[in-house]
């Protein structure tokens, strides 16, 4: 049954993509929505069935080989799936959150001309992510990896009549290709060392083949991490993610919560057998994650686009996940992946509800006082904001606190950076909440007259996600608070090195102290935001108003895009134009044109020999015979 469930789990979203992709110009919007929704909900059903079957089968990991695929000079790559604890958690998260986003999209995109095409792309996105997660080897994973990259390009640039949106889609596509090159090199090195790309063949050999920090192993793990940096938006390959807000809001929720940005985290967790013997690589991951978490939080302080604030919060939260990976706390990282999926999907869909009510306005400077007109959106958005800020008893508190605890035990410098990021997160998220939902309305009279709560199909996913964001911490509640760390025990058969068990009384005391510190820091951020934006009624500066140099630096995202433009884009453009002129024009074009000109000149010269006169032809024939006989006579004579 496992093979049947796994096969249909992948095929159903693919079938939805095919039906809507082929027939989106012919079928009605209602039918397109039914097909898209049914495909994703059915995938969730098959994921649940696969989970139940796995539980009944003794929870033993299994590899399902569907067919032999590639066989070349000793390298054999079957088309195979791997079902284990990690796979099942990811499947349930992707299909569950994906189904809620599909339901929301049915109402949010109702008046869009590309309705059927949009659902086709969403189904393809889900299919690609499922293939990435289910793959039993790096090549199958890579197909899904590239698939989610393609879908992000299609959906970020979905409204393709807007040049800026197309630019954002290209930026995401190209920056991810940079990371993918690193992943490919890592895969080539794996083939060279192991002669295989299958997890079941590679991971058992790692300890026998490599010593700790072996140079080849470091090269493999760092190359794989470069791929993760691109997909999961880490420094320096993070600038595509905020620009990805160009796509429809449900796309933002899907990319940020359930699919694309979690792929890099998943890949590193899946490759934990490699990283366990590469502490240097783990240290690099931890510091890159810390720098990214802090940078994303700093930039989020001054953003005024409601979706951009959430985008930079995603960059920052992904940094926390990588920090956990960097200290070997793999299940802590996955725990935050799951809770982040709950509250970040909630926040993005809530932002979409606000944008829907505000007639597509996204600037929080033009909002305010929306809690009365949008009570459900406000309440659920408040829950998401509290969760991401790390306030108990909401889910974000438990997953973030677990990461902070692990960081404190392993590296106090990184812990301090993570704690600073928590302070900034609480501040800018409540800044967003206060400016959007409190105070007086700052939009136009026309916008105010059209303010209304979103339809049921949009608010239902918000309520469900708010419930998950509230209770999600129960998945891995720490023992010090009376929990049983279910997720850590669930993952123990494949992540035995994760440090999540009970500690001594002293460490329990330390954990309680660290919890109190993290909550105090979050409350400090919330209190500061309250004082500034509700107490003093501070409003962000309007465009063009003079501001401090520091504010301009943060508002302009530290000018990182401009730096990249100067350092990379312009030099590459100059070299491209130079090569285009020297190589393509002066060498290739002139050579080809020269051959053509020579052929034309030769033809023009020879055409005079074709006069059409029989006498001329006879004269030339006689002359030729004479020359031929003279040459023959000369050779015989001498």
Key terms for this structure?
single chain, mainly alpha, 3 domains, two-stranded antiparallel ribbon
Overall form = globular
**How widely separated are the two ends?**
94 Å
What is the count of distinct domains?
3
One letter per element, helices H and strands E, the order comes to HHEEHHHHHHHHHHHHHHHHHHHHHHHH
Low-confidence stretches: 497-502
Instruction: State the share of residues found in helices, binned by percent.
Output: over 70%
Approximately how much beta-strand content do the residues carry?
Answer: under 5%
Largest sheet: 2 strands, antiparallel
> In order across it, which strands form the biggest sheet?
1-2
**How many helical elements?**
26
Structural class by helix and strand composition: mainly alpha
The overall average pLDDT, rounded, is 91
Number of strands: 2
Radius of gyration: 30 Å
Could you characterize what this model shows?
With 638 residues, this protein is mainly alpha-helical. It folds into 3 domains: 1-277, no CATH class; 305-555, no CATH class; 566-602. Helices cover 73% and strands 3% of the residues. It is built from 26 helices and 2 strands. It has helices at residues 2-23, 29-56, 85-108, 115-134, 138-156, 163-194, 199-202, 206-209, 215-231, 240-243, 249-258, 260-270, 272-275, 279-300, 306-326, 330-357, 375-389, 395-410, 412-437, 445-449, 456-471, 486-491, 505-535, 549-555, 560-606, 614-637, and strands at 62-72, 75-83. It has a two-stranded antiparallel ribbon. The longest helix is centred in the C-terminal third of the chain and has 47 residues, at 560-606. The chain is globular. The N and C termini lie far apart (94 Å). The model is unreliable at 497-502 (pLDDT under 50).
């Amino acid at each position: 049954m496992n093979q049947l469930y796994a096969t249909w789990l992948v095929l159903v979203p693919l079938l939805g993509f095919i039906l809507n992709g082929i027939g989106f110009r012919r079928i009605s919007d209602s039918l397109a929505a039914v097909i898209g929704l049914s495909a994703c909900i059915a995938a969730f059903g098959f994921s649940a069935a696969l989970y139940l079957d796995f539980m009944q089968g003794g929870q033993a990991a299994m590899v399902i080989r569907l067919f032999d695929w590639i066989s070349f000079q000793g390298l054999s790559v079957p088309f195979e799936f791997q079902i284990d604890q990690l796979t099942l958690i990811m499947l349930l998260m992707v299909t569950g959150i994906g189904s809620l986003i599909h339901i929301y999209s049915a109402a949010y995109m109702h008046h869009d001309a590309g309705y059927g095409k949009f659902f086709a792309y969403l189904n393809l996105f889900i299919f690609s992510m499922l293939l990435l997660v289910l793959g039993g080897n790096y090549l199958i994973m890579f197909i899904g990896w590239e698939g989610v990259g393609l879908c992000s390009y299609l959906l970020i640039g979905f409204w393709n009549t807007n040049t800026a949106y197309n630019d954002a889609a290209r930026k995401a596509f190209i920056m991810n290709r940079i990371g993918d090159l690193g992943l490919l090199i890592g895969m080539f090195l794996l083939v060279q060392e192991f002669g295989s790309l299958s997890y079941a063949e590679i991971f058992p050999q790692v300890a026998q083949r490599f010593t700790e920090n072996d140079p080849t192993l470091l090269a493999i793990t760092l190359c794989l991490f470069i791929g993760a940096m691109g997909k999961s938006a880490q420094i320096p390959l993070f600038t595509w993610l905020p620009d990805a807000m160009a796509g429809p809001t449900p796309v933002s929720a899907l990319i940020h919560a359930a699919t694309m940005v979690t792929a890099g985290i998943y890949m590193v967790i899946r490759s934990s057998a490699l990283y366990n013997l590469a502490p240097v690589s783990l240290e690099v991951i931890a510091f890159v994650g810390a720098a990214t978490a802090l940078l994303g939080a700093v930039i989020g302080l001054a953003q005024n686009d409601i979706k951009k604030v959430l985008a930079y919060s995603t960059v920052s939260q992904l940094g926390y996940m990588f920090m956990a990976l960097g200290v070997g706390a793999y299940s802590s990282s996955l725990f935050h992946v799951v809770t982040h999926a709950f509250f970040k999907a909630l926040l993005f869909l809530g932002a979409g509800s606000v944008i829907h009510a505000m007639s597509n306005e996204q600037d929080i400077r033009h909002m305010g006082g929306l809690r009365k007109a949008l009570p459900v959106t406000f309440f659920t958005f408040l829950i998401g904001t509290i969760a991401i800020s790390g306030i108990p008893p909401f889910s974000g508190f438990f997953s973030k606190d677990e990461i902070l605890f692990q960081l404190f035990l392993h590296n106090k410098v990184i812990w301090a950076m993570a704690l600073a990021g928590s302070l900034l997160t609480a501040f800018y998220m409540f800044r967003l909440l206060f400016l959007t939902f409190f105070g007086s309305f700052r939009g136009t009279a026309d916008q105010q007259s059209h303010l209304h709560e979103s339809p049921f199909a949009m608010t239902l996913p918000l309520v469900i996600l708010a419930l998950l964001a509230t209770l999600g911490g129960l998945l891995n509640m720490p023992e010090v608070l009376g929990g049983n760390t279910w997720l850590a025990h669930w993952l123990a058969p494949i992540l035995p090195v994760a440090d999540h068990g009970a500690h001594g009384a002293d460490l329990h005391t330390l954990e309680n102290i660290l919890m109190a510190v993290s909550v105090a820091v979050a409350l400090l951020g919330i209190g500061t935001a309250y004082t500034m934006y509700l107490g003093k009624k501070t409003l962000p500066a309007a465009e063009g108003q003079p501001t401090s140099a520091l504010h301009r630096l943060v508002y302009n995202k530290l000018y990182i895009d401009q730096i990249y433009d100067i350092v990379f884009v312009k030099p590459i453009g100059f070299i491209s134009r130079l090569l285009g002129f020297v190589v393509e024009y002066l060498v290739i074009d002139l050579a080809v044109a020269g051959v053509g000109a020579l052929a034309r000149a030769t033809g023009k010269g020879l055409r005079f020999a074709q006069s059409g006169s029989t006498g001329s032809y006879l004269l030339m024939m006689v002359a030729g015979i004479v020359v031929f006989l003279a040459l023959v006579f000369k050779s015989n004579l001498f």
